[in-house]
Amino acid sequence: ESPPGSPGTFVAPVAAGAAAVELVRDGRTFDRVDRDGVPRVQVTGPRAGIRVTERGRLDVRWAASDPERDVLQATVDYSSDDGRTWQTIATGPSTGRVTVRGDSLFGSRRARVRVTVNDGFSEATVRSGSFRVDGRRPDVRITSPARGTLLQAGIPVRLAAVVLDARGAPLDGRAVRWFAGRRPLGSGAQLTTRLPSGRVTLRAVARDGVGETRTVTKRVTVAPNRLRLLRLEAPRTVARGARSVTVTVASSWPARLRAAGRSHRISSRARRITLRLPRRPATGPVRVPFVATPRPGATGRVSGRIEVHRGPAPARP
Known about the structure:
Layout: E1 20-25, E2 28-34, E3 40-45, E4 51-52, E5 57-65, E6 73-79, E7 87-93, E8 97-101, E9 108-118, E10 123-127, E11 131-133, E12 139-144, E13 151-152, E14 157-164, E15 176-180, E16 183-187, E17 190-193, E18 198-207, E19 213-223, E20 225-226, E21 229-233, E22 237-238, E23 244-251, E24 255-259, E25 262-266, E26 271-276, E27 284-294, E28 298-299, E29 302-310
Parallel strand pairs: 4-11, 13-19, 20-28, 22-29
Antiparallel strand pairs: 1-2, 3-5, 5-8, 6-7, 6-9, 9-10, 9-11, 12-14, 14-17, 15-16, 15-18, 18-19, 21-23, 23-26, 24-25, 24-27, 27-29
């Protein structure tokens, strides 16, 4: 207890070899505690090898005694790293039992508890065997795409999630993986990708350093992309007797362009392709019909014709 007139509790370290502790003020001794027998403690639970689930409970039990039957105080610590560091989860009178919710603990494949009892002078400490705690899983929240965002197949979309482990530290990189249904999209808390058309279930899967995982989903509607030719450039004229023409083509979606009896792959990246020209007419305007058909994920076909002038360019009006 504190000396008269002194509020609070007086706490001082006790040397390991001390035989007694006296509380003295102004030469007057207010209290004295002599070292006596050391208390004993034994952990009876949890058993080594058990598994504590996130929704379960960790039941810590111990048996403690003191030779002089002093009142014992107990401190219960938890370690998620096999005893390298400890976190106090309970302290108070030694009742022999403490129950802790599984979702309040850090997950671990080699967890331990440590129980320390103290008679006011001496203390005894014992550790449990290792066990597994599923513990609190990562916290995951998809923030992008936001509700109401217009999504279109083939158009880049930004995926983003706030992902925290049980300690509140952010997870990123390979710890966060994205899927569209079963199709993998990539990894990272933020990702730019393309989505297929239709009703798509986005999945963000987070895995922390001890192997705990959490999956969240978000249903989005992705409108089909309508095929468009972004670029179709041909020379205005070709030489008299020219048998082919080189054109530059780019499309909004991967597609096949069929012209002059041949098929060519086209995409958003501009590509130069060579088309055969008909033999007739020998001079004047020459027309090459074409049809572009999109690969799955887009709709619509684009048809038209490429026109060049064979021979000298016609005079401008």
